[in-house]
Amino acid sequence: MPAAPLNCADSPAAPDCPTVGTAVYASVVVPVFNNAATLAELHRRIVAVLEARGVTFEILMVDDGSRDESWRVIAALSAQDARLRGLRLARNFGQHAAVCAGLDRIRGAVVLSIDADLQNAPEDFPALLDEFERGFEFVSGYRSFRRDSYFRRVLPSLLLNRLVQRVIHVPLRDYGCGINAVARRLAVEVGRHGEMRRFLKPLLALLADSASEVPVRHLPRGDGKSSYSLTRLLALQLDFFISFTRTPFQLVGATGLLMFAGGAVGGLLYLMILGLLGVSLGPRVQVLLLLVLVIGLQLSVLGLLGEYILRTYHVAQGQPLYVVRDDSAAPPREGIQP
How many CB atoms neighbour CB 74 within 10 A? Predict the structure, then answer.
């Protein structure tokens, strides 16, 4: 069951409400990578939708190491609209890192995320907000009809969705959709999870007390091309599997134990046959049994080491997920008026 809807007007001191004095209800986080041609149009549509909704809001555009004029466009838009804040990362850290940079700086009770390429429509924000205001902490958009190549994008995405569903047991349909609504509590909580933030939507779904999804439009790309190639999507699946579950190491360890047990039992049977019947099974069988014992023992040790290395990796993560180069396109934090 979803939690009770948040009402910051009645309870301004609630932990999920904006900081006193900011009066921001919705924070819109936009990861930007070589999207100079679409930013002005995206800004205009976000403002129109949220002003029509009648809520106070801020927009955070995070330039993830763009090589075009994206940062100049963000700075110009910020100079025109004090509700827009810009952040420039030192290099391209990836889409999820850029979103996390925005999440670390939000002031709203709800975070709305959207990609900058205009494939997602800001006009779907009201449906996400309606679901959020029903009490869901995490509202995921899902693309009911995708305008992508089936074999290059849709099929790998389907496989990744199935993998995520099986690992975290939250049956959302589209973990790759870039338009979502997230409660402030979750936005703060994900900051404590280190490298796992590189898989932001699965992490949010895992941490949320209640999650829902709404259908959203998927439009032709406004400019440029996707940075997610087929090989990158497949590598992402493997990386997610290793980051979110110990299953690979457990499978290797279990296989090693089975092989070791099989070799031990086989060796015992061989000795029994040799002792009772006086029949030798030949040097090849002896070598095979020995190999099974040795390889099984090695795989068992490898699985055990994998467990320790993975746990040490999660504890010892000290490297930052992103590095900020410039935040000069950020107006004073108390200035939110248009």
Answer: 30
Task: Examine the domain organization and report whether 270 and 229 are in the same domain.
Answer: no
Structural domain harbouring 55: 26-244+321-326
Task: Look at residue 217 in the predicted model and tell me its pLDDT.
Answer: 85
Query: Any idea what the Cα angle at residue 111 is, between residues 48 and 72, rounded to 5°?
Result: 60
Residue 236 and residue 276 share a domain: no
Q: pLDDT for 167-181, tens place per residue?
A: 666 777 777 788 999
Q: How many domains does the chain have?
A: 2
What CA–CA distance (Å, rounded) separates 337 from 250?
Answer: 55
Task: Mark whether 64 and 199 lie in a shared domain.
Answer: yes
Q: What is the pLDDT of residue 51?
A: 96
Strand order across the 138-143 sheet: 211-216, 138-143, 180-183, 110-113, 26-32, 57-63, 84-89, 324-326
Do 159 and 133 share a structural domain? Answer: yes
Residues 69-103: pLDDT tens digits?
999 999 999 999 999 999 999 999 888 889 989 99
Cα distances (Å, whole numbers) of residue 98 to 80, 88, 113: 23, 9, 11
What does the mean pLDDT of the chain come to? Answer: 76
239 and 253 in a common domain: no
| Banded model confidence at residue 9, pLDDT cuts 50, 70, 90 | very low
Tell me how far apart the alpha carbons of residues 65 and 94 are, in angstroms, rounded to a whole number: 9
Rounded CA separation 105/110 (Å): 13
Q: Which of 193, 164, 221 is nearest to 97 (CA)?
A: 193
How far apart, in whole angstroms, are the C-alpha atoms of residue 242 and residue 230?
19
Is there a single domain that holds both residue 228 and residue 284? no
Strand, coil or helix: 58: strand
At residue 62, what are phi and psi to the nearest 5 degrees?
Answer: -110, 110
Q: Which amino acid is at 14?
A: A
Is residue 253 in a domain?
A: yes
Among 259, 254, 319, smallest CA distance to 290 is for 259
Same domain, 240 and 264: no
Q: What is the pLDDT of residues 255-310, one digit of tens each?
A: 666 766 776 776 677 667 666 766 665 677 667 767 777 777 777 677 667 766 76
